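User: Sorry, what's this?
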Amino acid sequence: MIFKNISSMQKAAIGVFLSIGLLKIAGFLKDVLLANYFGIDRNVDIYFYALLFPTILFNLFSASYNSFFIPTYLAMKKEKGNSHARNYTSLSVYGIAIFLLVVIFLMDSILLPWIGQINKSILLSGELQRFLYYSRLASIFAFFYLLSNFLSSLLQAEHKYKQSLYPQMAIPLTISLFIIYNHENRGIVSAIDGMVYGAVVYFIITFLIAYKSKLITVFPKKENIKDFFTNHGQFFILMLVSVSSGFLSFIDQHWASQLGDGKLSILNYGIKIPDMFSEVAGMGLGIATFSHFSQWIIAEKKEEIIIAVQRLIKWSTLLLLPLCFYLILYSEPLVRILFERGAFTSKETLEVSEILKYYASVVYLFIPGIIAARVISGAAKNHLLLIAGGINIVVKIFLNFIFIGLFGLKGIPLSTIGMYIIAICLLYYFLIKEKVFRLDADFIKQWGISFLFVAIVCCSLFLIRRSFIFHNAFLDLTLGFLVLSASCLITLVFNHKFRFMVL
């Protein structure tokens, strides 16, 4: 069998992929309803702009705390036992809650009014109060979501991947229900209402799972509070690293808002589909691999890490590059079948599909970067990520300035592609220096073979797309997907029979 020899980490990744896939499908239903009921206009622009600041909070705390907490928790559990680790985790919940409340208060009282004042292109007179109202509601969502994410990190450290992911379904499902039943009374605010209530439900479920699994306690011992402060140095470094990704989102959203009414909405809808695939693949790999990388680094098994990273790169090349090409070829029917109804018109389909084409390649580029970042975090070398994040900001601003001037809104995804390529080269340079990755001749040969297989799959897709056009979005997408799936499967079977690559 093709998958007979896959490792435990790959099995975990497949399980996480499926779980996140279901979660993202539920999330995508929310996006389809949003497009259907509200379309593209100034009010939707303000909604997306208001969500930018909770997004910055997610980037600032969610990924950084996950990267910090899992190796810290595992090391403490190994050295001091389950009881000490449980107490440390419980103190962390209270500490994070207080920290988040302070940050959100400062953001709502100082940062948001200032941002509203400087962006005159999107927030005309009378619209600032609406922006602040949307943002403050979204801040409540951010508080409960981030606390829940911390508890999810704890479950992931214990390899309880499904229990950490399925409760998140409460958020997109609640948003969808609120949009359907309350859009006439609350307008687009109904979506934010659903976010808040969904996040509260998510927190309650994850807390109960962690409590019943005896991973946290409601009344931790105060004498262990010293551990909370002494172990959080790496977290603050990671938080500074995460500033870069949050700032990158702000740069793109702010720049898009300067290009005219509706441009911010077009950018956000255009990135939805690639973002869904990259998050499924990236989060799946990140969640499933990080605890393994951390354990291997603690046990000083560097060769295990090298082999795992090489195999993951080959797998992602074989499976994700053809998917990127599929998204480029079928961007228009994909947007049409998903979004074009109600307030979302055929003109907007063409505009959004153009942005989707450019963002499609990010699905593949995101994966090598997330793998490298997880290895670096597992090794507690987070200062290297801080350097890379600073370089990313400089590169993004420079490329945005050039490409937006030349190509308008399309310049934003083009600059993102350029930034990812430079970031990947830098991160793998760090990995090679730390001796946890090798570009040896055997790997380069096998990686090259994977690109050859990908070229064959892409040629098949291109020929089918040119030869069979049904003028029916569903039939076009279905035929393309069947060809993509069959070509990838034949490639894997062919490789399994003749052993061109070790997967």
Observations:
- The mean pLDDT is 81.
